[in-house]
Design brief:
Layout lengths: L15 E3 L2 E3 L6 E3 L6 H4 L3 E2 L5 E2 L4 E4 L3 E2 L6 E2 L4 E7 L6 E5 L3 E5 L4 E3 L1
Antiparallel strand pairs: 1-2, 2-3, 4-5, 6-9, 6-12, 7-8, 9-10, 10-11
Protein name: Alkylphosphonate utilization protein
InterPro entries: YjdM, YjdM_C, YjdM_N
Family: Belongs to the YjdM family.
Length: 113
């Protein structure tokens, strides 16, 4: 067998490594290997349309007209928006646009600056 430890949940010896995780096929328990860095410490890097790294509090500019879902309003190209926070969802940016209100944007439609 390999040098993987037994499953901490069920004690199975059939544990296998999948990247930085150890997985038990019997009970489906997953945990980080002791010698690997936790995935949360690495952090996701959010990048704009030009490849610049984005952070909370940055000001970005829209590079495309975006229709606001559920209304007849459109947010025009060139609108400056301040990022309230970056989230790990389908739409990465939580922001508030003057005249529109709270909105979520994708990083592919903005550029830093």
């Amino acid at each position: 067998m390999t040098d993987t430890p037994p499953c901490p949940e069920c004690g199975s010896d059939y544990v296998y490594a999948d990247g930085p995780l150890l997985i038990c096929p019997e009970c489906a328990h997953e945990w980080a290997a002791a010698d690997s860095a936790p995935a949360n410490d690495l952090g996701k890097v959010y990048r704009d349309a030009n490849g610049n790294a984005l952070e909370d509090g940055d000001t970005v500019t829209l590079i495309k007209d975006l229709k606001v879902k559920g209304t007849s309003k459109t947010v025009k190209v060139g609108t400056k928006v301040r990022i309230n926070r970056l989230v790990d969802e389908d739409h990465d940016i939580d922001c508030k646009i003057v005249g529109i209100g709270p909105m979520k944007l994708k990083t592919e439609f903005v550029k830093k600056g």
